[in-house]
Amino acid sequence: MLLARLLDDKFAALYRAGKIHGGVFLARGQEALSASIGVSLKKTDVFAPLIRDTAGRLAFGEPVLDAVRTYLGSPLGPMRGRDGNVHRGRPQEGYLPMISHLGAMISVVNGVLFARRLKKISGTVGAACIGDGATSTGAFHEALNQAAVEKLPLVLVVANNQYAYSTPTSFQFACENLADKAAGYGVESYSIDGTDLSVCLKMVGDAVAKARAGDGPQLIVAKLLRLCGHGEHDDASYLDPQLKSSPLGRDCLKVAEEFLLQNKFADAAQIAVWRSESIREIEEAVAKVQREPAPNPFAENWTAISSEHLSETHTNHE
Amino acid sequence: MSLTYIDAIREAQAHALRDDPRVFIYGQDVGAFGGAFKATKNLAKEFPGRVLDSPISEDAMVGLAVGAAIEGLRPIIEMQFADFSTVGFNQIVNQAATLFWRTNVPCPITVRLPFGGTSGGGPFHSQCIETIYAHYPGLIVLTPATVEDAYSMLLEAVALDDPVIFCEHKFLYRHLKAEKLPSEALPIGKARIAREGRDLTIVTYSAMVHEALEAATELSAEGWEIEIVDLRSVKPLDTDTVMASVARTGKLLCVGEAWPWGGVTAEVIARVASEGYGLLDAPPQRLNAKDTPVPYHPNLWTAHRPTARAVAAAARKLLRT
């Protein structure tokens, strides 16, 4: 959580310094939920994070270097400068790179789980993350229904952060609680406080365990507040001040730190050490990537398919 | 024994399932029922657990296929009608078509689209939408016109490491027959000379190959020898074979059942005009369906799409210029 917050802060600083092409999307306020997903999964599980899952990605095992290389467009990163920012992953390691179309990754997770079942591999769980906005898409409906029909071990986590870009939830859905939707699919669901790390860890952990035990898809809806704009280009002036001062507007990182201190799991000195170690790791990664070469358009293989002998060459006039 | 085009598609899938344990079929009604057109008849029984019914969710069907491909399998997705694939369009063009380019992980999925017009099909069971898929980088788009090609190209599609849009023409399903399945075939990416001639080249694909052949027979009675190029795959497009034919005949007519704006016929003409302008003795022409949705009544439908008569008329006009 702490590493994710500090990494995001670094991306924001690089963005303001003009060092990042395109957008920067922060996860502030969503780290407790996201980290809980990452730590609840095994390395052999499947994870399809969304834009505010820096913490979940790192907890699932993404190296800081992958994140930095993707944001800075390094050809040595997993996306090689072809895609950037939050669009990163390593599909063959069960870490799926999101496309921008919301809800679209859920059925892809279903597909990996479906394939593992066909291959007689058991015990895998797949987690997909979305926001409240994506629950309005057809892809969400199709994929959750598909997972339910096939009884796949899918854990679908909705971060209800109260806004889809600038659109409040009142324009997004009319049901009392998003978790109520699960009943219509024959899926188990949980409504949780997304600002409280200990709650998130327990509830996400339980849902992952249930999916792994063969209880079928699980839907988690976590209420929280996005403590930043949609991206760093967005000042979030539309955020309701009453929401900000409500319990929903608590900073989950502060809540988690207080929890650690109160329960004597860590003292202030320990947290300070974690912080400085994280900053060192991030600074080293950024310094390393900034020395790496940029993608070279002349060395680029301008082919979109793997069967190179079938690529269209006639339209590429040299 | 004689085999139809749909038999060939069924046999190719049986062959793929038998030879490669990574292959499975997923689609609406494909299981015990055997598919809306019976392209998967008895396959669920022959290959238990590998021919599976899906809910009516084209988006999730393709998304699932992409996930399975990432996991190393080779899914075949049957769309009940090509027209419905637009519901899964996002997953095809944004997820499947970009996966390899983004991640270096291949996406070997085959999406079977029963496409094209049949009498009484109407606006939502007749569409030819190969163009919109061919437009997106990352996809291979196949349009077999013969029983032999339906078989060999589907087998090759499943073996390819890239997403393939396999456009199988519903009008040909039971009209075409062959004595046996081929043991060898032209590879994907190579066009075929369906008829040799010296006076004019018709470039076409799928069901229109047969309309063009009929037109050529009619015109030969008038003394004209028409050469017909069957593209077989519209992406990649075998420009070399087209250009060589135009070099022989000097005249080009492109025929497609799809709508006229943009598309395969426009692409062929653009290539010949820009790369082989000097080969042409007359302005290249094209013949497509009318720019309206596909009508239901046979009187309207036969006037909407190019027929042998319309192809012959267009060819005659070009031959006289």
Cα gyration radius of chain B (Å): 19 Å
For this structure, what is the CATH homologous superfamily of chain A?
Thiamin diphosphate (ThDP)-binding fold, Pyr/PP domains
Shape of chain A: globular
Q: Write the H/E string of chain B, N to C.
A: EHEHEHEHEHEHEEEEHEEHEHEHH
Oligomer: heterodimer
The helix-strand sequence of chain A is HHEHHHEHEEEHEHEHHH
- CATH top level label of chain A: Alpha Beta
Q: What's the β-strand tally of chain B? A: 14
Q: Name the strands of the widest sheet of chain A in spatial order.
A: 1-2-3-7-6
CATH architecture classification name of the largest domain in chain B: 3-Layer(aba) Sandwich
What CATH architecture label of chain A applies?
3-Layer(aba) Sandwich
Strand order across the largest sheet of chain B: 3-2-4-5-7-6-12
CATH class category label of the largest domain in chain B = Alpha Beta
Quick one: biggest sheet of chain A? 5 strands, parallel
Secondary structural class of chain A = alpha/beta
Quickly give the structural class of chain B.
alpha/beta
- Alpha carbon gyration radius of chain A: 20 Å
Give the strand content of chain A: 5-15%
Structure description:
The complex is a heterodimer of chains A (318) and B (321). Chain A has helices at 2-16, 31-40, 54-60, 64-72, 104-118, 138-149, 181-185, 197-212, 241-245, 252-262, 268-290; strands at residues 46-48, 126-131, 154-160, 163-164, 167-168, 188-193, 218-223. Chain A is of the alpha/beta class. Chain A has one domain (2-291): Rossmann fold, CATH 3.40.50. In chain A, the strands form two sheets. A five-stranded parallel beta sheet of chain A has the order 1-2-3-7-6, with helices on both faces. In chain A, strands 4-5 form a two-stranded antiparallel sheet. In chain A, strand 6, helix 8 and strand 7 form a beta-alpha-beta unit. With 321 residues, chain B is α/β, with parallel strands linked by helices. Chain B folds into two domains: 3-178, Rossmann fold (3-Layer(aba) Sandwich); 192-319, Rossmann fold (3-Layer(aba) Sandwich). In chain B, 38% of the residues lie in helices and 17% in strands. In chain B, strand 10 (200-204), helix 7 and strand 11 (226-230) form a beta-alpha-beta unit. In chain B, helix 3 packs parallel to helix 4 (89-103). The mean pLDDT of chain B is 97. The chains are: A alpha/beta (318), B alpha/beta (321).
